[in-house]
Amino acid sequence: MSENSMRRLPAEWAPQDAVMLTWPHEATAWAPQLAAVERVYLELAQAISRHEEVLIVCRDAIHRETIDDKLRACGVGNARYVLAPSNDTWARDHGPIGVTDGAQPLLLDFSFNGWGGKHPHALDNAINRHLAEAACFATDVTPIDFILEGGAIDSDGEGGLLTTRHCLLTSTRNAGLDEAEIEARLCAWLGVSRILWLSHGELAGDDTDGHVDTLARFCDAGTIAYASCDDPADEHYAGLTAMAKELRALKQRNGKPYRLLPLPLPRAHFDETGQRLPATYANFLIINGTVLVPTYADPIADAHALSTLAEAFPGREIVGIDCVPLIQQYGSLHCVTMQLPAGTLSAG
């Protein structure tokens, strides 16, 4: 497959039409914590709707009515609903990935297999088809027989793609394809020209095999914010220190090193079995004019992360969202959202 010279994967800070949320319900793993996690979704919808539309995937008509009542009570009117059954709520990984082909925006529907077959996924894998059939989009949605989650990649908007070997090369996703073959396919489908691979840094409790959106993120084409650890007694110290060394060795398109902004780890959170949860500030979401940042009831680390990201995004409002409920199912703010680039959403 040859690279498509007209195709580009926009950076997350490019103009957006909407952010997609797949709303939790009692048939998902959120059932025991549904009230707490819904409060996070309501806060997210409020924050997003101030800047762009919120596209909400509801399991059925009753679910839609319930969500609409709650959003209206919170003053959210800039929402659109579509009905589609769902296994779970991780829109970053089952939602469509937007690219441009020349001036034409397109949506790519990569296959989703529950992070390598770890969890039920058939309903989630069909959500993008339901959205297309419901005429949600103003552009084509192209199905692609290749496993790729949105959380596994991050774009600088200039042909650079940041990702991790641990995730993309795992045999439970695209068995039989080696690094060179996967790289060639990504370059062709996404229009990228440089794959920046990381080999270190997976977080405890992460069940995605090391999604890059938990570890390191572009803030502009020359700046990367990344999860860091300065405590040698922490189980993450060796891996994140090795990742920081990798990041220092990476070069921008112009040959210069990246400006690197370390983000602290929040205090450790654990589930009821004692498993550490993958709390990370790298899981922020960039929307029109604003950056939404997960916080974790850690006043010192939360403030440090918010301040660092304010430095990374001058001119954008920085808004913290309490995501302690979200990490109970091993994801965070970026994981439950998927931005839809400008020109992809149909008129409401």
TrEMBL record:
Organism annotation: Acidihalobacter yilgarnensis
Protein keywords: Hydrolase
BP-aspect Gene Ontology terms: putrescine biosynthetic process
Entry-linked InterPro entries: Peptidyl-Arg-deiminase_porph
GO molecular function: agmatine deiminase activity; protein-arginine deiminase activity
Protein's UniProt name: Agmatine deiminase
UniProt superkingdom: Bacteria
